[in-house]
Amino acid sequence: MDDVDKCLEKLKRCELLSQATIKDICTRVIDVLLDESNVCEVDAPVTVVGDVHGQFYDLLEIFQIGGECPDTRYLFLGDYVDRGHFNLETITLLTCLKLRWPDRITLLRGNHESRQITQVYGFYKEVVQKYGSADVWSYFCEVFDYLPLSAIIAGKIFCVHGGLSPAVLSVDQIKLIDRFREPPSEGVFADLLWSDPSDRDGFNLSQRNAGHLFGKDTVERFLHVNGLSTVLRAHQLCMEGYQIHFDGLLATVWSAPNYCYRCGNVASICEIDASLNREFNVFSAAPEDRREVPSGQAKQVPDYFL
Amino acid sequence: MAAAVPLAELFATPLVSLNRSRRDVIEISSTAELSDAFSTLAENSITSAPVKDAETGKYVGFIDVRDLTSFLVHFGAHIDEGNFMVADVCAAGAGSVLDNVTVSYLARRNPFKGVKADATIGDAVKLITTAKVKRVAVVNDDGQAEHIISLSDMILFFATHITAFPESFINATANAMFGKDVENVLCVKATQTVLEALTIMDDHKITGIAIIDDDSGAIVSNISGKDLRKFIKNPTYQQLHMPVVEMIKALRQASQVDIATPAIVVYPTTLVHMIVKKLAATKVHRVYIVESESHFAPIGVVTQTSIIKKVATFLPADDA
């Protein structure tokens, strides 16, 4: 693992790896991910991280605040890429951490870990700009196909990127999904990555055209059937960094401060101790003197649309 | 979901009960500058607004984002190069090639159809299908528009009460109800320019078009009325000549915080009630029918208007 350590040192300086090295790392991490269930079992204590979206310097802030991996056990809920200026550095760092310490970091799949979405929201474009071709994008898309879909912390806290599905009452049903593919636009797989909580009871169609809106009653039923205590998810911007729903039965954690470098929000990480007490550690964007502005990189969003 | 209501009762529902926005009708004066008229649409997130003649006080028609499409196409055809803003050209006045294109000129192309305050949903359905309008104005006794009811308002209503319709309708498939109509699915290739896309839309008088991959023909995304509203906030010559897919990507990145899928599609086997609910939930004006997940080329399109036309076939005999 000496080679991975060297990669990690380079990445923490925000330096990209060679295309050949990335290909090798991606191939090796797929072997690790193959052994993981669609529903990973994660021990406590653990720190849960929401959407990061290529905000590399804010990811480094997370490790400053929460502790470095492997000292701190981490569970990431997906959406590592798109929107930010350093999608490549972000996903490469996380992939190397997973390869180096597979038992100390769990990476779930978010709705942005998809060929269709990354072609629209920035990751694909960044790869072509930085490497001159889309090969590295296709290596990571293959890694995305192997990311697990959910996790349960200490048998009690269900973690997923988006939310619940009308087609799933038991966690065992999630274990049966064939996840090794591009996410479909409908069905349980799509629901887990795209759904959002709602004030309306039951399941309803979502404005996102994927996933469902799910109400408090569906969360109560799901937790009861599976002997769980709460749901922890990401997927939606929270201006305060996190949001508690349904009298504490569900929480959203959001980990990209000043999202898209203009939303002005704070972010948080959810620290869960051995007794499953939950604390949201709120933080702001990395200070200016600790981040680089991409040089020579075309603006991802022209000013005239802001 | 609301309990099933008899269809006759559904159609007898007062039209004004569909007005969700509860805000005053936004109107535009016939003397307004074109750029101000388009800005009004964008700033208020509306697709159209009634135009009132400044002298007579009567409604001339509606100005619509489709008019902006026509305007930009006309502008794009007459300007060879340069860094012009459309707003500058609108304000140019005498000597401009677009001198005769006024708010009134554009509004007369979209007729103002008003109904009285006691009009029903059935009345609106009939008006939409016979007069081919996209919205119905509810006017008071003085002829003043008090509510504008859109196709989206009506689709939401029918989605909520979908079980009122016969099973043979709501459980029909997209293929059976709307057929395979590839020739009439208007598309633009991803690398074609924004101007080329707008030209196709203007030629066919539509507010939406599918964007397809140059090689595979699969739907990548689409241009919608919402995109046009955002586009008109600050259009420039360069944007008109960008690849249309790059324009849409930039628009979506800038405007969406919690994203939706890039393309909104249904399949030949999707049932009608799901299509109506999807239109209501996503608030889009059309969904494209694609063959399957692996063959994503469009083979048909279902619009709000095509749903309303089907609904019209259930109007009571004396209303139809």
In percent, how much strand structure appears in the residues of chain A?
15-25%
What's the CATH C level of chain A? Alpha Beta
Q: Name the shape of chain A in a single word.
A: globular
Taken together, the total number of domains of chain A comes to: 1
CATH superfamily of the largest domain in chain B: CBS-domain
H/E series of chain A, N to C?
HHEEHEHEHHHEEHHEEEHEEEEE
Number of domain units of chain B: 2
Alpha-beta classification of chain B: alpha/beta
As a percent range, the share of helical residues of chain A equals 25-40%
CATH topology of chain A: Purple Acid Phosphatase, chain A, domain 2
Description:
- The complex is a heterodimer of chains A (306) and B (320).
- A six-stranded mixed sheet of chain A has the order 1-5-6-10-12-11. In chain A, strands 4-3-2-13-14 form a five-stranded mixed sheet, covered by helices on one side. In chain A, strands 7-9-8 form a three-stranded mixed sheet.
- Chain A has ten helices and 14 strands.
- Chain A has a single domain, classed as Purple Acid Phosphatase, chain A, domain 2 (4-Layer Sandwich).
- In chain A, a hairpin with a 5-residue loop joins β13 (267-272) and β14 (278-283).
- In chain A, α1 packs antiparallel against α4.
- In chain A, 33% of the residues lie in helices and 18% in strands.
- Chain A is an alpha/beta fold.
- Chain B is of the alpha/beta class and 320 residues long.
- Chain B has two domains: 7-163, CBS-domain; 165-312, Roll (CBS-domain), CATH 3.10.580.10.
- Helix content of chain B is 38%, strand content 16%.
- Chain B contains 15 helices and twelve strands.
- In chain B, α14 (272-282) links the parallel β10 and β11.
- In chain B, α3 (65-78) packs across α10, α6 (121-131) crosses α15 (304-312) and α7 packs across α15.
- The longest helix of chain B is centred in the N-terminal third of the chain and has 14 residues, at 65-78.
- Chain B is flat and about 60 Å long.
- The mean pLDDT of chain B is 86.
- Chain B: It comes from Thecamonas trahens ATCC 50062.
- Chain B: InterPro entries: AMPK_gamma/SDS23_families (IPR050511), CBS_dom (IPR000644), CBS_dom_sf (IPR046342).
